[in-house]
C-alpha cells in the first residue's frame, strides 16, 4: 500500500518535471526558459524528499531555485535583450544530429537500467538524510573536499567580479 | 513496487533533454540552463543510488555538486556579461574568434 502511494506521488512529480524540462529547451524567450527551470527545480526537490534526502531537497530549493535562478534572471534583465537576440535560427543538420545523439544516450542508458534488473529499496533508519547525519559525513569522511569547496567558492566570487568588471 | 529503476530512468530522460538543449540551442543563457538541468539529473542519480544502497555517500556528493554548480553559474554568467559587453550578442555562432 505504501509502495503504491509512493509510486503515485512519484508520477505526480515526474510528469510536471518532464514537461517543465522540455519547456526549458523549447521556449524561445530566455525568461520563459528560466521560469520553467525554476519549476523543474521545485519538482526535483519533491522527488528528493521522496528519496528521503531531506537536506539535499532543502538545499535544492535554497541554492538552485533561490540563489542560482535569481542570478540568471538578473543577468537576463541586465542584458536588456532586444528582439534580434531572441529569435532562434532554423535548426541545422548538425543540430538535428545532436538531438538524435541525445535521444540515443537516453535509449542506451534506459537499456542499461533495464539490464541491471530491479533495485528494490533497502530499509533505512530514521537518521537517513537528516542534517545531522549528512553533516557528520561531511565533517569526517569528506572533510578535505568540504574545505576545498570553500576555496572554490571564494575563487568563483573573485573570478566573477574580475571577469564582469568593465575595467580592472 | 518502489525501486530505484524509475528514478534512474527519469534522471536519464532529464539528462537527455538537457543534452539536446546544449547541442541544439544557440542562446548562451539557455545553453547554461540546460547544463544546470544535466547537473540536476546527475544529482538525482546519486540520490537514487544512495537510497537503493542505504548509504549516504551520495548525499555528500550531491551537496558538492550543488556547490560546484553555484560556482559554475557565477563564473559562467560573468563570462556571458563580458561577451555581451564586447560583442553585443548572445549567439554562440557569432563568438568564434578561436576558430579562425
Could you please describe the fold and organization of this structure?
- The complex is a heterodimer of chains A (168) and B (100).
- Chain A is built from six helices and no strands.
- With 168 residues, chain A is mainly α.
- The N and C termini of chain A lie far apart (63 Å).
- In chain A, 22% of the residues are buried.
- Chains A and B meet through helix 1, helix 2, helix 3, helix 4 and helix 5 of A and helix 1, helix 2 and helix 3 of B.
Task: Please outline the helices and strands.
The complex is a heterodimer of chains A (168) and B (100).
Chain A: H1 2-26, H2 30-50, H3 54-78, H4 93-116, H5 131-140, H6 143-164
Helix pairs in contact in A: 1-2, 2-3
Chain B: H1 4-24, H2 28-53, H3 57-87
Helix pairs in contact in B: 1-2, 2-3
Query: Poorly predicted ranges of chain B (pLDDT <50, ≥5 residues)?
Result: none
The assigned structural class of chain A equals mainly alpha
Which chains share the greatest interface? Answer: A-B, 86 and 71 residues
Helix % of chain A is over 70%
**Poorly predicted runs of chain A:** none
Percent of residues of chain B in beta strands?
under 5%
The helix/strand order of chain A is HHHHHH
Number of strands of chain B: 0
Average per-residue pLDDT of chain B, rounded, comes to 88
Rg over C-alpha atoms of chain B, rounded to the nearest angstrom: 17 Å
Structural class of chain B: mainly alpha
- Principal-axes geometry of chain A comes out as globular
Which properties best describe this structure?
heterodimer; A: 168 residues; mainly alpha; 6 helices; 76% helix; globular; B: 100 residues; 3 helices; 78% helix; elongated
Amino acid at each position: 500500500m505504501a509502495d503504491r502511494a509512493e509510486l503515485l506521488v512519484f508520477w505526480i512529480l515526474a510528469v510536471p518535471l518532464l514537461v517543465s524540462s522540455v519547456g526549458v529547451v523549447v521556449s524561445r524567450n530566455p525568461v520563459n526558459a528560466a521560469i520553467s527551470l525554476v519549476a523543474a527545480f521545485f519538482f526535483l526537490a519533491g522527488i528528493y524528499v521522496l528519496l528521503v534526502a531531506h537536506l539535499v531537497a532543502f538545499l535544492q530549493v535554497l541554492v538552485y531555485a533561490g540563489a542560482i535562478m535569481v542570478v540568471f534572471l538578473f543577468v537576463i534583465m541586465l542584458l536588456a535583450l532586444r528582439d534580434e537576440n531572441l529569435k532562434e535560427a532554423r535548426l541545422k543538420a548538425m543540430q538535428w544530429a545532436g538531438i538524435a545523439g541525445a535521444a540515443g544516450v537516453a535509449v542506451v542508458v534506459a537499456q542499461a537500467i533495464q539490464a541491471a534488473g530491479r533495485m528494490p529499496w533497502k530499509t533505512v533508519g530514521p537518521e537517513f538524510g537528516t542534517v545531522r547525519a549528512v553533516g557528520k559525513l561531511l565533517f569526517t569522511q569528506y572533510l578535505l573536499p568540504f574545505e576545498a569547496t570553500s576555496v572554490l567558492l571564494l575563487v568563483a566570487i573573485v573570478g566573477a567580479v574580475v571577469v564582469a568588471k568593465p575595467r580592472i | 513496487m518502489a525501486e530505484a529503476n524509475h528514478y534512474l530512468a527519469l534522471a536519464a530522460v532529464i539528462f537527455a533533454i538537457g543534452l539536446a538543449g546544449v547541442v541544439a540551442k544557440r542562446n548562451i543563457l539557455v545553453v547554461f540552463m540546460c547544463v544546470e538541468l544535466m547537473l540536476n539529473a546527475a544529482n538525482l542519480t546519486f540520490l537514487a543510488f544512495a537510497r537503493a544502497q542505504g548509504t549516504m555517500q551520495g548525499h555528500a556528493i550531491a551537496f558538492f555538486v550543488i556547490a560546484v554548480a553555484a560556482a559554475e553559474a557565477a563564473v559562467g554568467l560573468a563570462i556571458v556579461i563580458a561577451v555581451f559587453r564586447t560583442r553585443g550578442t548572445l549567439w554562440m555562432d557569432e563568438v568564434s574568434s578561436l576558430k579562425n
